[in-house]
Structure formats: C-alpha cells, structure tokens
Amino acid sequence: MNSIDCITLEVADTTAAERFYEAAFGLGDLVRVRASDAATTGFRGFTLSLVVSQPSTVNGLIDSAVAAGAATLKSAEKSLWGYGGVVQAPDGTIWQLVTSAKKDTGPDARTIDEVVLLLGAGDVGASKRFYVDRGLTVGKGFGNYVDFSMPSSPVGLGLYKRRALAKVAGVDAEGSGSHRLVINGGAEPFTDPDGFAWEPA
C-alpha cells in the first residue's frame, strides 16, 4: 500500500455535492461522493488540503468555493509558513487552501499542485506505526505531525494530533460518529486505529 487513488466523501445529496466540487475545485475523479445517512456530529477528524503555488490561486479557490456554497472558517492570510485559508463545503468536509509563497509571481493559473489528506490521530505515534507496518514510509515527522512519502500517489497523506488539526481548521475538536470518509487505495479493506476506513479503488 503506497498510494491513495482517490477520496470518497459520504454525503446526503450526491448531486449537490458533485455540483459543488466541480464548481469549487474541479478535482475530477480524485474526489468522489456516495450517498450516506450515517450519523456524525462536530469535527469529523480530518481535513483535505489543496496546495498551490501562490496566494492569488488560494484566493481564487476560496472565492469559487464560497460562490458554490462553502462557508469560510478562516479567511486567507499570511503566516510564518506562507499563505492560506480554510472553508467548509456544504457536505461538512473541511478544506485548507494553502501555499508556501507569500507573494504572487504571476497570474492565477488555477493549478493545484498537491491534494493532501490530513488525518486527526488520537495517538500519532501509534497511528504512524500502524501505517509503517502496512508499508508506508515516513517522509518527515516532528512532534505531533507525520508526513508520509508517497511520490507516486495522486493524494498525499499526513497525520496530525486531532486537537491540533481542529485548531488549524478553526473548529472545535469535539465530534463523534462517522468520519463520512473512505480512503481508496491498497488491495484490501481495513480500518486504522482512529476509525478511518480504506477500501480498494
């Protein structure tokens, strides 16, 4: 297991969700949706990040997401690491739009460089060991953060302490019930220590 082929979001209204994601981000088959009425409350324990090259692209993606119905959780602003903001899709999924650049170098080309799934872990060390035992390689890690090296994967994967991830997202860390997320990759289904489900693509 060394690749995430796509992400499946479980939503109440698949038609509305497909319309939103096409209008907001245009990610094609990287993000799929399927119908579910699974109960969930509060923070679902994960975020999806779109990494781009410059602030104008961040702003453009936030604008298109809000125009399509997203709510702004954190307005885009400069920080020590770059520039970014956070929105929540109508289906409840939290999206971080980020760049390491603090200045534009050209017009907004609306190009997404990376899609990264960040999973909120109760015990980052235990979750890291679980994934390493399943064949993943740690690219970098410090404190409560782990980034896996997956060069051939269209979707990157990282682990973050759940409470820290919620803070970055601008939401309360409390939440229960379904994650309403399926990670598509690998040859067999499994569930990780934090309840995130994987299924073959």
From TrEMBL:
InterPro entries: Glyas_Bleomycin-R_OHBP_Dase (IPR029068). This is Glyoxalase superfamily protein PhnB.
